[in-house]
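Support request from a user on the community tier.

User writes: "When I paste my structure tokens into the form, the page sometimes reloads and wipes my input. The last time it worked, I copied everything first. Here is what I submitted, just in case something in the input itself triggers the reload:"
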């Protein structure tokens, strides 16, 4: 549910009033790895990756207060938590951005979806195009006539109980990087992510206090060293 104009003004005012020490402490708290060229952080759920049109409270803005040299490479949805990599100079930004264009980085997400989906250990792929649907902003939809394909690999990890409801824990690996791809692909197979404020309804929405989607693993080549590097963030749900 979007914030009201009054709430946005309040949040923006609070953010601008924080002292520098707040932003340095925040940066330290979310840092997973940092060197002269890259900065890997663990984004909290509920925080924008970059400033919105009206809401000026985001991960990038906070990191810039701690280190003005930080540069954006990719994003996570506001409701999603987990690993993001930023560059600390233009050369590193260019190198890693090119890796993303060439689909070299390997990303794995952990999610919990509503209901019992397939058997534990089952693996497969979902290959259906996903596009933005203006009439239901901010939703995206599956459109088989859309020209840009979207591919997600999955593995069923466990069936669990969440507040008296059966849910399925899955590992999701996006091969493409369409907006809302993982969320829409789960809707497509009939098992919406629990706690999803955009796509879930009824029990699927209310049994979890947040979207159960977490960017758990990230692997890519260091922009200077050229070596593959791996990072992992434990699932918070």
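"...and here is what came back when it finally went through:"
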């Amino acid at each position: 549910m979007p914030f009201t104009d009054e709430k946005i003004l309040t949040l923006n005012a609070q953010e601008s009033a924080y002292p520098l020490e707040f932003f340095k402490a925040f940066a330290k708290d979310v840092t997973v790895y940092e060197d002269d060229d890259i900065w890997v952080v663990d984004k909290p759920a509920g925080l924008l990756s970059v400033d919105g049109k009206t809401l000026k409270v985001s991960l990038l803005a906070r990191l810039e207060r701690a280190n003005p040299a930080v540069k954006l490479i990719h994003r996570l949805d506001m409701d999603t938590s987990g690993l993001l990599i930023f560059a600390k100079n233009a050369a590193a930004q260019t190198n890693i951005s090119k890796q993303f264009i060439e689909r070299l980085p390997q990303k794995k997400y952990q999610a919990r979806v509503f209901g019992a989906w397939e058997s534990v250990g089952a693996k497969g792929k979902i290959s259906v195009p996903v596009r933005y649907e203006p009439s239901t902003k901010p939703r995206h939809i599956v459109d088989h006539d859309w020209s840009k394909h979207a591919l997600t690999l999955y593995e069923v990890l466990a069936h669990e109980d969440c507040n008296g409801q059966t849910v399925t824990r899955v590992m999701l690996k996006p091969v493409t990087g369409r907006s809302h791809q993982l969320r829409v692909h789960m809707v497509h197979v009939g098992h919406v992510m629990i706690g999803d404020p955009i796509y879930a309804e009824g029990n699927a929405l209310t049994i979890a206090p947040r979207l159960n989607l977490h960017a758990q693993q990230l692997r890519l080549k260091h922009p200077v060293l050229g070596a593959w590097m791996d990072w992992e963030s434990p699932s918070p749900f």
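Agent notes: The reload is a front-end session timeout and is unrelated to the input. DSSP finds six helices and eleven strands in the chain. The longest strand covers residues 151-162. Escalated to web team.
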